[in-house]
Specification:
By secondary structure, this protein is α+β, with helices and mostly antiparallel strands. 25% of the residues lie in helices and 36% in strands. The chain has three domains: 134 residues, no CATH class; 92 residues; 152 residues, Alpha-Beta Complex (Nucleoside Triphosphate Pyrophosphohydrolase), CATH 3.90.79.
Length: 401
């Protein structure tokens, strides 16, 4: 094949079988004739690396995760790298290649379709032979996809097709059930699939005739999944109009308030909210809306107040709080407030942006504090409990009236 350059080339599929690690480049690689310095791009190519038997670690793959500004943490991804490439979780792009006797080191980047977008990666092989196969046929490409350990695409399409059928049936016969947690999870999976590169790759693979003929593929219809998600969005708008009422109830003796709070921790600090009116801080969170679960409410509130979609770790505290109202809405009333506080899973690249306001129109600000912060903050049990978090759910009652 002449001189070969993998610089800027991306792996589309991988396979490891019979001590041969194969890389598939659907967009080709760069080659040149031995007498010509200029490199040209080839068509589809497979590169086979023959792994030497006597080495215990014939294949080692590491991803470098930048945890701090000072250093990166090396993670061993040897076991799950191939499956992640094949199911479209990320792509590997070659940058540099280092060769020595029976040893080769590829350095490059893995690219994601969302944050963190890319990470450094190394693929280290003990090999004594590398070969290239030019212009593999469509039939051979299909065989690569669905050989042992390479059926991830079909499994994914099959699962999405099941979700598509069930959600379509619910939408037709009982639209109100789309807020069922199981159905909601299916809808979320379908939306994530359609918004990612995986749907487009599966659609293009189908157009090329690379998918099994007996595979049901309604989810790959250009209009089918899009129309389904649009119908669901319209129903959600109508439901939100009906459910957009906070669980804050005026009663003869006072006000019943049911809310959620988020515990967002980073090392020895946690995130609190302050505003231009109060002399105290309070947790990220807010009232639960009618028809909304506490888990749904805390995810929504965190997004509204930090502009970041965050997952729940676990429920940490239930707090019953009795106090005198201090806002225009609550002034002069005794408030009986029940709060659910959840520990959240904080992303490494978490950069909150606050665009929220209090119920009486005051601008809110986010502040990272330690437990010994001098300014008053609520709930007060954060001072002791967040220094030594435990797994069990704790219950607190506070009476200030």
């Amino acid at each position: 094949m002449g001189n070969v350059s993998l610089h800027d080339c991306r792996i589309n599929q991988m396979r490891y079988e019979n001590k041969v690690l194969s890389f598939y480049f659907y967009d080709g690689i760069y080659v040149s004739d031995k007498t010509v310095e200029e490199f040209v791009r080839t068509g589809k190519v497979r590169m086979d690396c023959y792994i030497i038997d006597e080495f215990i670690d014939g294949i080692s793959i590491y991803i470098f995760d930048k945890k701090t500004n000072e250093k990166s943490i090396r993670e061993d991804w040897t076991d799950n790298f191939i499956s992640a490439i094949n199911d479209g979780s990320f792509e590997f792009e070659f940058v540099t290649t280092y060769k020595s006797y029976q040893h080769i080191l590829f350095k490059g980047y893995i690219w994601f379709d969302k944050k963190p977008y890319c990470k450094e990666c190394e693929i280290e092989l003990h090999t004594d032979k590398i070969t290239f196969l030019d212009e593999p046929s469509k039939e051979e490409i299909a065989a690569w996809h669905f050989s042992k350990g390479m059926s991830n695409n079909v499994d994914r399409i099959f699962k999405m097709e099941q979700n598509f059928d069930i959600v379509s049936m619910v939408l037709k016969h009982n639209p109100k059930s789309i807020n069922n947690s199981l159905i909601r999870n299916m809808i979320d999976e379908l939306k994530e699939y359609y918004d990612s590169d995986r749907w487009l790759r599966d659609y293009e693979a189908d157009e090329r005739g690379e998918l099994p003929k007996d595979l049901k593929r309604g989810v790959l219809s250009q209009d089918g999944l899009y129309n389904l998600l649009c119908d669901i969005a319209e129903i959600n708008v109508e439901e939100n109009k009906k459910m957009n009422h906070d669980l804050c109830v005026k009663m003869d003796d006072g006000i019943l308030n049911i809310r959620v709070g988020a515990i967002i921790m980073k090392e020895d600090k946690f995130l609190m909210v302050e505003n231009d009116r109060f002399d105290h801080m309070y947790s990220v969170g807010g009232r639960i809306k009618f028809g909304e679960t506490a888990e749904e409410a805390v995810v929504r509130e965190v997004f509204e107040e930090t502009s970041v979609k965050m997952e729940i770790d676990r429920l940490g505290f239930i707090h019953e709080n009795f106090f005198s109202g201090d806002t225009e809405v609550k002034k002069g009333n005794i408030v009986h407030e029940i709060s659910f506080f959840f520990y959240m899973k904080v992303p490494d690249d978490f950069e909150p942006v606050c665009n929220s306001f209090t119920e009486d129109g005051k601008k809110e600000h986010l502040v990272w504090i330690r437990a010994d912060h001098k300014k008053k903050y609520y709930p007060e049990f954060f001072k002791t409990e967040l220094n030594n978090p435990v797994m069990e759910v704790k219950h607190f009652v506070t009476r200030n009236v």
